[in-house]
Structure formats: C-alpha cells, structure tokens
C-alpha cells in the first residue's frame, strides 16, 4: 500500500489515473511504489478478487506501443509517459480524440478515429490534482479462462469481461459475422436498458442512434440501412424479456466465446530473423497483409496455435500440456515440447518487446492452465461458496420479484378483462337502450296514429249516433203518421159503413156521389199503405246500420284498450332499463381459490413455456436475418476473413472443430507439420 505523507515532496509523488472499462480512478503513489501495489489498489477499490485475469497496460514512451506493466518492478522505472498535471487534467473536447486513443488499447495501438466505435466513460472530478506528475494506465483483461461461464466467479469479473469483449467486437479486434453481431447487440441492449416493453411504455423515448451497437463492417459490407439494422436488433431484443443484467452479460459472453478469435492474442512471426518488417496495429491492416504474412502465432488459455492462411483456421495447435517450456532471447522465441522425444521449435518476432510479451502471455496462460487442473485453493473455495450464497439470494429475490411481477401482471390482466367485460356489457346495454328508445318512438308514433284513428272512429260513431237518433225520430214520426192514418182509415171505414147503410135509403144519385168519394178514399188508403210498407223497410235498414255501428264502436274501444296496455308495458320496461346499473350485473362464476404452491407451479410453467416460445422466435429471427444478410451483402467489400468464415461455414467447421483438427496426431507429427509451414 502506498504511504500518503505530507512530509514527502510533491516531486516524489505521482498521480496515477487508472482507466477501467467503465470508470476512471485516481491514486497518489510514491516514486518507489511497485506495480503490484498499484494493481492491488485498483482491485481493492473496485472490489475485484479474481485479479489473476487482469493487468495494467500503458503506452511505451520509447516504442510508442502498448506494454504490460511489470508488477515486480517499480512503476517509475518502466517506460511510462509522465505528463504534467495541467495538461493531463484537461479532458478531450471532441469525442474523436478520446476514441482515437482509448478503445484500441485492448489488442492493438490506437489507429485513426474512423475505426473507433466506443469511448471509455470517466468518473473523475474536474480540477487540478495536487501532484505534478501524472501517469495514465489502463486496467484491462490480460488472460482469458477456458470456460468463461463456469470459471468466472464474481459478478464484477463477468461485468469487466463483458465490457472488454464487447469493445473488442465493436473495434473489430475479434471477428464477428453480422448476424452474430446483431444478436450480441440485442443482448447488450437488454443488459443496459432491461426489458424493451417496459422501456417503450415509459415517457422517455429511446434513441438507438447514440448507442454503439454494431461494428462498422456491418454497415460497410451489408446493404442495409441503419434503421433496418436497428429494427431487427430491437426485434431480437424483445425476445430477451425478463433477463437480468447479469444474465444478459453472461449470455453475451457465452455466445462471444464461440467466436474463432475470442481470447486469442495474435503475433506475426517468421522462421528466419528479420523476415518481419512491421507489426500490424489494427484488424484492418492485418487483414490487408494476411496473404503476405508468413505465420501468425495465437496464444490463449488452451495453448499456442499457428496460422498460415487466415486467423480463423489454425494449422497446428499445441496445448499447454504438450509444451514443456517457453524461452525468449532478444527476438527469438523457443518452444520446448514435452514427451519422450523432446523437440524444440524456434521462431522470430518483429521486435524484442514482442518476444517478451509472447513469453509473458505464454507463462501466465500456462500457470493458469496448470492451476485449473489442480485442487482449488481455500481462497477459491471461499469465493465460490460466498458467491454461491449470493447467487442463491439473488435468485430467490429475482424469483420473488418475478412472482410478484407475474402476479401484478395477472391482476392487471384480470382488471383489464373485467373492465373490458364491463365496457362490453355497458355497450350492449347502451345498444339495447337505443333499440328500446327506437321501439318506444315507433310505439309512440303508432299510438298517435291509433289515437287519430280512434278520434276519427269516434267522430264517425257520433255521426252514426246522430243518424240513429234521427232515424228514431223519423220512426216515431212515421208511427204517429201510421196511427193517424189508421185512425183516418177507421173513420173512413165507419163512413163507408154509414154510407152503405144509408145507400139503401138514399137515391141512386146520392149513392153514385158517395161511391166516387169512396173510390177516392180507397185509392188514398192504398197509397198510404204503400208508404207505410216503404217506411217499414227504411226502419229495418236503419236498425241494421245501427247494429253495425255499435259493433264497430265496440271493436274501436277494445283496440284502444290493447294499445293502452302495450304503452304501459313499454313504459315499465323503459323504467327498468333506466334504473339498471353495472352493479346489478350477474357476478362472475365461482372459482375455488388456489394455494400458493399451486399458483407458483402454474407461474413457473407459464414462464418456461413463454421462455421456450421466445427461444423459438429468436431462432427464426436469426435465420431470417442470415438470409437477408446473405442476399444483401456487398461482394466486393468482403474481406479475407469474411471469405474464410464463409468457407468454414460451408464445410460445417467452427472454432472447436478446427482446433480439434489442428491438434490431431502426435506432437512430433504436428512439429513436422509446423516445420513444413
């Protein structure tokens, strides 16, 4: 640990700025502090215990190349550029300056700003530091595990690996085909923002244009617009619902681990000294010089690989169990093989610093390789135990949160269903009410028409009654006339009988005179009889008309009574509809309550079914994306690595099958193949 003492001079102290993948740390150290002191400070500050995977890197002030900090030497004795505080405290104003410097420290020296896609964020405070001398170093991954999902213990370790691998892919230091890059971009969005549906429902809009999602090669080699890329990435993103940040980052690392160049450090070598004149500093430069290069050496956690044609298919592979030792003398590197017939293979690097870096990486990877095959130390066991306990607690909390979320979603869906049912029922009631109102209006119109008809019938009945009264009056008058005529007839008959009696006594003249009067009276009586008969016929007709009028009046009265009954029923039905409310609706059917265990099992089954459906949807979307990329790719812009990847894909090879082929045969046979290369 460094000592912070006020008695020390400022010239004996240095301000170290350590850039991690997502933060900036500042420490004040003494001039005599060693590298492991600063490295321990960084690990303690960020809470990292799996420190053996990481290292500190700096820009060599002599060779202007990236160099690993030697932890056993003092920091100031190494060729680190020392800057004054006034210059170092000023942050770059433009993003291009930062992009040109920081993203490419991981595998190669910085290149032009056009190849950068990300910049490291800063958490440091502005203002001058009391120290005058400032050192800038970068805390990055140095060694990779064999199985990244099982060997990494801490969440902070996985997070740092995720950030580094993501930046390597975006900077094209690791070759990644476009479809896999889109899939990894969707996992990165899930890790950063969470579920898409929850984010889209928020008030803040999502701007993907500001996010570094894909390598520039995806836009250059495939004829798809940025909007098309983003829409397909979002569609893939939606299939990762309910993944936490840790799960998303682990899924990212699982898929990235299958890439051919994952975890490999490449160096250009030659059989003879002086054959190499340059060491390509970027992936694009190495692609352009891939045909002219003699051999590439790849070092990872499994062993050493030798490449001839491209960096996706190793020609010869030696595991660390096949290698006895590695030695370096100036530019020369010697591999000593183990076995009955020990053999050596010597090759040359471009510079002595490169050969030292090869030796450093080979030694560190070999130590970790052997350490993984020995019994775990107490520290590792404690870390795994505590991490397992934390993972169980996190899993319990996540399970509980998922259950609460599912329960809340179910309650929300139930409320929405009830609300939709109530809306549907209210709509049906409203439609029924409108129908009743239309029927009521129609019945009102019919009632009005019926009342008009009743009025007209009443008027007709009144006229008939008037005519009936007139007929009665005429009948009475005719009866009076009839009685008068009967009286006159009786009087005439008396006169006739008197005349007949007197006719015997009177003379013939008087008799003839009376006979004339009698004939006149007889004709008058006959005429009156005819008139009486006609009057009887007329009275009979009027009586028939009176009976018909009475029947019609009775039918009209019955019709008015039925209309009144219908109106009363309609009014009662309208009152019932108007007074009804949703509270009077029939309750939902009874459902027996379920126990918590049954509810949890149902939720888990539903969650698994949903997860399987999303996985199937993800496979279909990736297959469709592959077909679109195959149809839209620009042939003249395909690099040598793209063509090599297509060749491997055509013959069904992948990272593991090519490595198995390169490691087939005995060590001596592979050594002979290596000499032939």
UniProtKB/TrEMBL annotation:
Q: Which SUPFAM superfamilies does the entry link to?
A: Moesin tail domain, PH domain-like, Second domain of FERM, Ubiquitin-like
Q: From which residue to which does any coiled coil extend?
A: 398-432
The entry lists its GO molecular-function terms as:
actin binding
Stretches assigned to the FERM domain: 14-373
Query: Spans of biased composition, class Low complexity?
Result: 106-126
Keywords carried by this UniProt record: Cell membrane, Coiled coil, Membrane
GO cellular component assignments: plasma membrane
Q: Spell out the SMART domains in the cross-references.
A: B41, FERM_C
What InterPro entries does UniProt report for this protein, alphabetically? Band_41_domain, ERM, ERM_C_dom, FERM/acyl-CoA-bd_prot_sf, FERM_2, FERM_central, FERM_CS, FERM_domain
Principal localization reads membrane
Q: Provide the leader sequence positions.
A: none
Q: Where in the cell is it found?
A: Cell membrane
Domain of life per record: Eukaryota
Q: Where is this region: Disordered?
A: 82-126
Question: What is this entry's stated membrane topology?
Answer: Peripheral membrane protein
Q: What is the recorded name of this protein? A: FERM domain-containing protein
The lineage is: Eukaryota, Metazoa, Spiralia, Gnathifera, Rotifera
